[in-house]
Amino acid sequence: MKLKILSVGNRSPQWVRDGVAEYSKRMPRELKVELVEIGPGKHHKDPAKFKADEGLKMMSAISESAWVVSLDERGEQVSSTQLADRMNKWQALGRDVVFAIGGSDGLDASVLSRADESIALSALTLPHYLVRVVLTETLYRAWTINQGHPYNRA
Asked: What is the C-alpha separation between 30 and 37, in angstroms, rounded?
């Protein structure tokens, strides 16, 4: 199973690339993490058109067979152990999992409606670049919980 992080925004700062790379390399081969950057939408006077353009780009990068998890402030708050349980369920599905991270205006309705589930990483609003690092670390933490590794208690 591949874990694909689909995120609006390109040219992320070096600290973001380093953080994602650090936690991605810790994951086992059977849970490979891939970051795919989606360029921001075309600038429009109407913010809804801008967001819709981002949505089209994201939808084109999501395969029909993928299990899609939107990261949205209105999503379900889950603990690390709950995420670990979900990771086990995702593995049992035998499908790649795509995590959709929107830009500054959030995810387009098309992506939200395509999502099989929606989670919130925090009640706080986090910058989309930081979400990449937090999500990658959180996925690693969930995997270590499932393995009985002491990382989660550190």
From this structure: 22
